[in-house]
Amino acid sequence: MISLISLLYFNLIEMTELIYDGTYEGWLTAVFEIYEYKLTDIVFAKKETSGTLLFATSHLVTTDISKAKRVLDGLRKRLSADALSNMYNAFLSEIAHIEQIMFQFVEHVLANSKSIEEDFSHNAVWNIRKAARMTRKESHRMEAFVRFKLTKDQLYYAIIEPDCDVLPLIENHFKKRYADQRWLIYDAKRKYGIYYDLENVCTIELEFNLKMSSSSYLTEICDEHEEFFQNLWRRYFSSVNIESRKNMRLHIQHMPKRYWKHLIEKTPNF
Questions:
Q1: CA–CA separation, 67 vs 134, rounded Å?
Q2: Mean pLDDT throughout 110-123?
Q3: Among 82, 196, 228, 255, which is most buried by a count of CB atoms within 10 Å?
Q4: 228 or 131, which is more confident
């Protein structure tokens, strides 16, 4: 009965649902408008209302770069570059209620004249640190686990499905490492990718087709030598694997199974 009463009380409070476009700049704009319009009891929603609150009013946020910049400028006066980076990385983690956690962090920053970056007794400070660490870990894994395939038109492409939205964090790594070839890294989970044209990296949106990962489809689009090099890569990994020293638990710890379907060395020969 107590939990039911609490739920009814929560829904009777008139909440304001801020609907934004899901971008970091959009979230920063939403923060600006919370203070601009003195909004209270707020929740964040991406692109459309969540429908979870019975008595919520909606506030549509239109991304405004000037408003987003004013929020960032205000935070730069109170936070180090590392703390600002942690905020951005936390946003990319996409963990549940991360926008709410980040706003609690911003409130804590603005309410104190001294630095709160090491105030881990505050839940938002600690949770931002944890979420940022998770995103960085995932981005490092993607830098190691991306496997390119060469198409007939000499485009190197790779498909990934990371837990966090790491494409913005790994693009510079691949631009520097593969500066002399065109490549595309596509995030099948979020349905967008980053494309490098030998000069610039741009973001593109694609509708992922599941048949794109099938062996028959790959045979159609891949360069005629691609199958040979993929099999060579598999043989290399097989040859360096010492059976007597195999530790599957440690192997999975460093290379979780959720990544295997996009790793050439973990897929069978064509």
A1: 28
A2: 95
A3: 196
A4: 131
Q: Are 140 and 110 in contact (CB under 8 A)?
A: no
Task: Select from 217, 164, 172, 214 the least CA-distant residue to 189.
Answer: 164
All residues at 6 or more sequence positions from 35 whose CB lies less than 8 Å from its CB, including other chains = none
| Alpha-carbon gap, residue 190 to 159, rounded angstroms | 11
3-class DSSP state of 176: helix
Q: Which two tokens stand for residue 253?
A: 């710890």
Q: Where are the domains of the chain?
A: 2-136, 146-266
Q: Count Cβ atoms below 10 Å from residue 58 Cβ, excluding itself.
A: 13
pLDDT in tens, 141-174: 999 889 898 888 888 989 999 999 999 999 999 9
Report pLDDT digits (tens) over 203-251.
998 776 655 555 445 555 565 555 644 565 455 456 556 666 666 676 4
For residue 75, count other CB atoms closer than 10 A to its CB.
18
Runs of H (alpha helix) within the chain: 2-12, 24-36, 65-76, 81-93, 98-110, 123-145, 167-177, 215-221, 226-240, 248-254
Q: What is the mean pLDDT of the chain?
A: 83
Tokens 């599941």 belong to which residue?
A: 210
pTM of the model: 0.80
Average pLDDT over residues 52-73: 88
Check: CB of residue 46 under 8 Å from CB of residue 5: no
Q: How many CA atoms lie within 13 A of 252 on its CB side?
A: 5
Alpha-carbon span 162 to 182, nearest angstrom: 22
Residue 93's CB is within 10 A of a number of other CB atoms, namely 23
